[in-house]
Amino acid sequence: MVAKLLKKIESRKAVIGVVGLGYVGLPLIREFSAGGAKVLGFDVDPAKVKSLLAGKSYIDHIPNKHVKEIVKTGRFDATTDFKRLKQADCILICVPTPLTKMREPDMSYVIATARSIVKTLRKGQLVVLESTTYPGTTREVMLPILEESGLKVGKDFFLGFSPEREDPGRKDYSTKTIPKVVGGHDKDSLKAAVACYEIAIDTVVPVSSCEAAEACKILENTYRCVNIALVNELKVLFDRMGIDVWEVINGAATKPFGFTPFYPGPGLGGHCIPIDPFYLSWKARQYGLTTRFIELAGEINVSMPEFVVTKLMDSLNDHKKSVRGSKVLVLGLAYKKDIDDVRESPSLELIELLKEKGAKVDYNDPFCPRTHKMREYNLQMSSKKLSPKMLQSYDAVLISTDHTQYDYQCIVDNAKIVIDTRNATKNVKRGRKKIVKA
User: Fold this and answer.
1) Are 188 and 3 in contact (CB under 8 A)?
2) Domain 223-437, what fold?
3) Which residue ranges does the chain devote to CATH 3.40.50.720?
4) Per-10-residue mean pLDDT for the chain, 438 residues long?
5) How much is the pTM?
6) Which of these, 212, 249, 217, 213, lies nearest to 234 by C-alpha position?
7) Closest CA to 121 of 155, 165, 162
8) Separation CA 221–CA 223 (nearest Å)
9) Active site residues per annotation
10) Which of 413, 420, 360, 418 is nearest to 389 (CA)?
11) Are 371 and 377 in contact (CB under 8 A)?
12) Residue 130, Cα to own-chain centre: how many angstroms?
């Protein structure tokens, strides 16, 4: 069975199905299409499907021209009809894996996708989960549902896990050039998954199992989470000591070995780093272990928005103003600079916290003209146009995202108070007394 699938993949006759046409799925489609494969995209949102078929992108860092090129090949189609999953030879799952309010894994999207696949699962198909999750998900959650079809993994169909490694806005690496870790349920599943990704990715890195591949992604993001927590904690300490943490980090980074710089911020954002460590902590409890180091890092990072709001309140107090009734402008809604991705962005929590304390809050973000309804937030706000006069009308300006489009000297010149969470004002020459690092 696997030989037939491998032959189909290598001859570029295999249809690649991608479930979830967001920040992970759409870049994958682009690379598989460029590799000469037939691609079929699936999403529950008809607006996304309509947009792609019209050659239009809804993700800022993927230009319309790239989508038009995919459509022009004649090898691409998109649909909301999940019955068409039977047409795909390789099904790649790129759906959200958020946390519940209790900070436990929410597998509802993965389970729903598996239930859609099992309805049409046929012999010879490969199913690969890409959604970031805890070790064991593919085998413990996906597999039992797929085997409800009566088909057997490794014999009738193939199953793997390959963690997404997208970093929106990055210029030095792309989906194609970032090495792809791939794990299979069995040897034939691994062979099929490796062959599939070799169509689109320059370097495919096979590992011994789905669990090993799942753990790779968790390790990558926990590593970042813990190190960011360290500098966030030092930021709070150094702030009380009157030391600029950014100066300290930049000084330490001159050491050519033994130190990797990480930078503090108003909190963690993006789909992975704020979530993945909690997945691992949850899984560890099933084995009777407490990941104290990881949980402490999570607590520190989660506390950062409160620290920022406290700094803002203190600054307003110094100007004999209460936060209640004050006008606050938040600069940047996206979770990092120069992208339109607001998933888990600390800006959202900052806005909510400030509103809860009675502030009148607006935001500006050149990449996010308006907010949209999300799982945890429905702010119903639109980006305000920046101007010197507009900046002067606010009691405080909070820099949450350091977009390069911002003229920070102009911002400092016209703002009464600037709360800088990103060291964005480091090159400002005038008005430094207005700036408060947070």
Assistant:
1) no
2) Rossmann fold (3.40.50)
3) 2-208, 223-437
4) 95 97 94 96 96 92 91 95 98 90 86 98 98 94 97 98 88 93 98 98 98 94 93 97 97 97 88 71 88 89 95 96 97 94 92 97 96 84 97 98 97 98 97 96
5) 0.90
6) 249
7) 155
8) 5
9) 272
10) 413
11) yes
12) 13
